Structure formats: structure tokens, C-alpha cells
Amino acid sequence: xxxxxxxxxxxxxxxxxxxxxxxxxxxxxxxxxxxxxxxxxxxxxxxxxxxxxxxxxxxxxxxxxxxxxxxxxxxxxxxxxxxxxxxxxxxxxxxxxxxxxxxxxxxxxxxxxxxxxxxxxxxxxxxxxxxxxxxxxxxxxxxxxxxxxxxxxxxxxxxxxxxxxxxxxxxxxxxxxxxxxxxxxxxxxxxxxxxxxxxxxxxxxxxxxxxxxxxxxxxxxxxxxxxxxxxxxxxxxxxxxxxxxxxxxxxxxxxxxxxxxxxxxxxxxxxxxxxxxxxxxxxxxxxxxxxxxxxxxxxxxxxxxxxxxxxxxxxxxxxxxxxxxxxxxxxxxxxxxxxxxxxxxxxxxxxxxxxx
Length: 356
Prior knowledge:
Number of domains: 1
Structural class: alpha/beta
CATH class: Alpha Beta
Order of helices and strands: HEEEEHHEEEHHEHEEEEHEEEHE
Oligomer: single chain
Strand order of the largest sheet: 1-2-3-5-4-8-9-11-15-14
Strand content: 15-25%
Radius of gyration: 19 Å
Helix content: 10-25%
Distance between the termini: 46 Å
């Protein structure tokens, strides 16, 4: 991808506060090299993707639910980790492998580029690091991962979904826009669909350009979720001056991102709705009502949530009196995809009801 005219090359070090997710260590998966057919249902394996960046090959983590050897085509969830994270860390943060076992879907976690399996990140179009400045073709890489998995294990091609977090959310926006015809939905946490010039322009002699993904070829259901207290990728948008050396750019807000997807889906904004999860004042707004093609766009703003992925075990560390204690964003996303029953009963999560 061509860099924006007059825009400085993004550097990785100044992006530390923006990229760092959680570096919590987790259990290792079995390494099975190139033969994805060696995966065992109920376990996680790491495979080579057949692509190298510099001296290092790229890998992905695959988890099959028990019984996957029966030949039945199953949904596939592609999960893109946050900046400086990894497939292993994101599996731990989201709990997706355990949920895949429980709800019978396949999940795959591609790894971004990095050094010695560290500092992994993605080309989100406008960010980040070497992945964006080279630029690395992460769209083709995710394509390759999906094709490798589907070539050996039956995948329901009508139910392929993408989830992204922070820098991985930037790529999820890009991938969903570029591959809308091959996806059934996308869900993104703590990210932005693109960047726009700060007004007034800090350097009128060097005008900056808005960066947005390509217009999708067809409508796609999209859930955009954010924490109200996120200061790394603020829901109201954030200037990138300190990070990009007077770039004069800002991240688009959660509302701007939702409006972009609503326009891309060619539908008008719907009536706002409000949902309370476990007595939490989280707000769900329907930017685009579901039509015949099901191309709704929803925004979930979690009151009191920060940049961290809000699912157990992270949310179990909160005070039991905190409304976010035990909250599980991953379940909400799977519910949005239709992979989990919306009525979960005893956990206190209510249905969506119109606001007065």
C-alpha cells in the first residue's frame, strides 16, 4: 500500500502507549510446522503460514472443537491480536478456544510480524510500525491462513467471522472492508476505522489526507465496541501529533467509524437502543438496522472500561461490586455473530430494548 503523501514513516517505538495490549504469559500450544492436518480436536496447535518477513516465518494458532474430525463444516472465527501481543496472548485474553469447544466452531489466531516472536503488530493501513511502513500485505496473509485451514478442515464458508483488538482491530476493519463478500460479520474492540486531518491543519503547507479502507463490495454486519475510559484509542478520537511527529492526524471516533460502516452498508441510522448487562450501564446503539441482508451496524460503549479486553480472567480482577466484574465481551461478539444463544439465562445479561 502506498504511503500517504508527505506523511512521515510511522515508527514503532513512539507507538508503545498506543500498541501495548497485555503481555500476560499463557500456556503453549503444540507446534505442528506446516501440516495443518495434524491438529487434534480439543487442542491448540501452532502452524507455519508459509510466508517469511525478513528472517522469520509467520505462524498462526489453530483450535478445533472436539468432534471436528466428523467432516461437518463448522463456522470459523479469525481473531487478530492487539499490537505487541500474539496469537497465544489473544487466546488467553478472549477465551475463544474454550468457547469454541463449548459452542462448536473453529477459531484461528494469525500472528502479526515481529522480532523473535516479540513485538508483533499489523499493517492496519495507517498504523503500525514496520508492518505499515514496508508495507506488509496482511490482507493476503489472513487470506492464506483461512485457505490453509479450510483446505484440511471443513469450514462453513457462509459463516466466517473476524474479530480484532486495537492494532488488530485496525486490520479487522481493513479486512472486513476488503473481503466483505467472504465474511459473515466483523467485531472490533478499541480501534478506529481510519484517520483524518486535525482541524485546523497544523501544517497548512503539508496537507494531510484522510485514510479509510476501501468501500466494501457488499453490506456486512459489524459490531464496534469501545471502553468509555480508553485513553490509548479514545472513543471520541485522539490526535496523533505526539505519536507521528506532527502528523496533523487524528483517529476517527467510535461514532465516525460507525457512520462510515452505515454508509458503506447503504442504510440509514436506526433508532438508538440500550442494553444493560449485569446491571452495567453499557449502551448499545443501532446505527444501521438489520435489513433483508442482515447488514446491521451496532456500537457497544462500555461505561468504565479501558483499553484492556473486557473478558474473564481480566474482568474477574475487578471489584465484585464493579458492574464490569465478570463481563465477557467475547460472548457478546459471538452472540452478535449468532454463534451463541442470545438468551443466556442466569448470568444477568438482558435483552436489547428500545430506549424511551
